[in-house]
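Notes from the 1:1 (GR / supervisor)

We went over the backlog. Supervisor wanted to see one worked example end to end before approving the batch request, so GR pasted a single chain during the call. The sequence is below; no edits were made to it. Supervisor asked that the structure be written out right there so they could see what the output format looks like.
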Amino acid sequence: MGALFYVRLIGDTAGTLLQLFWLAVILAHRRRRNLERVLFFLCFSLFLYYSGSLLVVNAQIHYQVAPPALKTFATLMIGAALCLLPPLLVQIHVEYARIRGSLGSKGLRRAVLAAAYAPLLYFGLAVYPRLVAAGRLDFLFPASSFGSGYGLWLAASMAFAAAWQVRFAAVALRAERFYHSAFAVLLAAGGALALYLHLGGGPADPLLRAWLSASFVLLPIAPLAVLAYQVHKFRFLQIGGQKNLLYAVSAMFLAILYLSLVRRVGIWMEPALPPEATSAILLFALLIFVEPLQRALSGRLRATLHSEVDRQQRTSSEIQEVARQGSLFALTRFVEQRVKEVFGLAHVRLELGPPSSPEATGDDGSYAQRSFSLRRGADLIGTLYAEPYGALLSGETLAALDFLCEQLPGSLELCRLIEEKVQLERELAERERLALVGQMAASISHNLKNPLGSIKTILQVQLESPDLPERLRGETRLILEEVSRLSAKLNQLLQFSRPSVRADQSAAHCDARAVGEEAAGILRHEAASRGIRLETEWPESPLHVAASREALRDILANLLVNALEAVPASGRVQLRIAREAGSALLTLEDDGPGIPPEISARITQPFFTTKAQGTGLGLAIVSRRVAECGGRLDWQSPLKDGRGTRFQVTLPLGPEDARKEKGES
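Structure output shown during the call:
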C-alpha cells in the first residue's frame, strides 16, 4: 500500500495544481461563451475533488487520527464535486456540440441537460447531506459511498461524452483528431470501470480494487494536461493566443511544486537535518540550474522572436501585394480578414479617417487596448479596432499589432496613390474615347443631315402634289416619318458631340422654372396621347441656375422623354423644381418598371440602351450637361414595390439667387 499512497499523493497534487492552472487561464481569458463557463465549473469541481483528497492524504501523514472537522470539510468538498461532475461532463459536450453546429434544436439541448441534471436533485439533496452528517465517506474510492445508482449516472454521462468525442473526431482537423479519439477511449474505459466498480462489485483482491479505484480517480488528469498542450500548440478552443498567460501560470505552478517539494524533503530529512537547513540547501541548489535555464530561455525567446518577425513580414508582404492593386476598399477588407486570421481575434475593423467614437482614440484604458492608431507624422489617418475572444489582448498580440500599425500607413498611402493614378488613367481614357465618339458623331451628322433634309423636302412636296396616286401616299408618309425619326437621332448625336456653350461661366444662367414649363409644355401633348399623367410642381418665384438655357433644356427634355417612354399607359410622371440647401433641385419621378440593378451603373454610358430603337445617348447627354454645369446627377430605382425611378439633378444657383441665399442665411 506504500506505493499506492505515494501515487495518490502525487496524483492528487498534480490534479489540484492542474485544475488551478485551468481556473487561472479561464478567469484571465474570460471569453463570453457558455463553453468557458461550463469548463470553469467542471475544473472547479475537479479542484474540489483533488484538493479534498489531498487534504485527506496529508492528514494521514500528520495525524494518527484525523480531526473530525478536517474529515467533515474534506467530505463536503469531495461530495460536492462528485454531485456536480456527471451533469457538467454532459453539459460541456453539449455546449461544444452547439458551437460546432452538431446539435439539433434548442428543445433537444434542454431535454438532454434536464435528463443530465435530474439525478442531482436526489444525490445532492438526499444522499449528500446524509454522507456529510454521518461522516462515512470512503476516501479511497469516494464515489462508492453514493451507491450503485451514482455509478450508473456517472457511467451514462461518460458514455454520452465518449459518443460525442467520436463524432467530434470524425469532423475534426488533423491536429485535433487524435485528442478527440484518445479522449473517447479514456471516457469509454472510465465508464466501463465505473460500472465494474459500482455495479459489478469490483475484484475480490482489496489491493487490486484500490489500484483500480486510484486509476479511476486520476483518470481526468491526462486529458486535461493534453488539452493544455493543445491550447498552447494549436490554439484549441481559441484560447491559445494568450501564450504569455500560459507561460506565467506554468512558471507559477512549477514554483509552487518546487516549494512543496522543499517542504516535503525537509520533513523527511528532519531526523538528520533541521527543516530550515534542508530548505536552504534545496533553494540554493537552484543556482546550479541558472545557466542551463538561461540558455534554454534565451534560445526559446530568440526562436519566438524570429517566429513573430517572420509572421509580421509575411503579413506585411501580403498587405503590400494587395495595396499594389490600387483598391482601398479591397485593401481594407483584406487587412481586417488577414489580421483576424493571423492573430486569432474575434473581430477586426479598420476605419480610415477620424475615429467614429471619441472614447476609442486613446492608447490607455480597457477599451483603448483594443484600438490602434494609424498615423502619418502627426496626422491620424485611421484606427484599427481588434476584439479578442477573451477579455484582454495578450502581450505578444499587443506588441505585434503595434508593429503592424506602424507599417500600415505606408501600405495605405501606396494604395491611395495607385488608386488615384488608375482613376486618372481611366478618366483620361474615357475622355479620349468620348472625344473620338463626339468627332465621329459630328462627322456622321454633318454628312447625313443635308441629304436627309433634301429627301424630306422632296417627300413633303410629293405629298402636296394632287397628281400623286393614292396608293403611294401611305408609303410616302411612312418614309417621311422614318426620315423625321432619323433626323431626330442625328440631332441627338449632335447634342452629344458638342459641349454646352458656356464661354463665361459666371454669365451662363437661366430661369429653371421657365425652361421646365417650356419642356413640359412641349411634351404634355405626347404624354396625353399615351394616356400618361404629367404632373409638374414649380417654385413660387423664378429660380435662376448657373447653366445655359440650352444645357438645361437638354437635361429636362431627355429626362422627360426617357420617363414617358418607360411608363406604361395610365402611368404617372412628375417633374418638380425647387430650391433646397443653397442649390436648385430638379426631380423627375415615374412609376415605370424601374432600372434593373445589374445595369444601373451603365445607364449613363454613351450608346448603352435597352430599347429596341434607342440610341443610348439620352442619359449620356444628361450626365454630360450636368457635369458641365458643375452639378450632380443621382438616381434611385426601384422606389416602391419593385417599381418606379427617381432622377435628381442638383445644380448651383445663378449669381443673383446665390447672393439672395447668402443674404437670407
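Supervisor's comment: The chain has four domains: 2-240, 312-422, 426-497, 510-664.
Batch request approved.
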